[in-house]
Amino acid sequence: MSVISKMLSSLGICGAGCHQYDCFTGEKQPLDVRSADRVVFMQSEKVFAASVGSTLLETAEKNGIPMPYGCRMGICGTCATLVLSGAVLMDVEGGLAIEQKNSGYVLPCVSRIKGTVVVAA
Length: 121
Hints:
Layout: H1 2-10, E1 36-41, E2 46-49, H2 56-62, E3 81-90, H3 98-103, E4 105-106, E5 111-119
Parallel strand pairs: 1-5
Antiparallel strand pairs: 1-2, 3-4, 3-5
């Protein structure tokens, strides 16, 4: 989509009046991102400060914590991870089954950190 958008812009066909539908993630919920504190990765036995607005996956990658992922958009569910304590705000939840949501799983690729979060990774 970004290639097509750049191509149209370079041809003078598209500008501020063009809109792009995000067909992969659906509607995103508004975020209320507050000062992130830290993330505790229990399996890896590591604690890291998180940048404001960063996702759990971005924080893990930045600090060398291995975490599986697929689409990076909350659709495939590959990155589903258990939150042991704390809270996150997910942009979308489509990649989680109801049972996973009820059990405390989140999608790190679209989960924004709120305060201190402890995850099973």
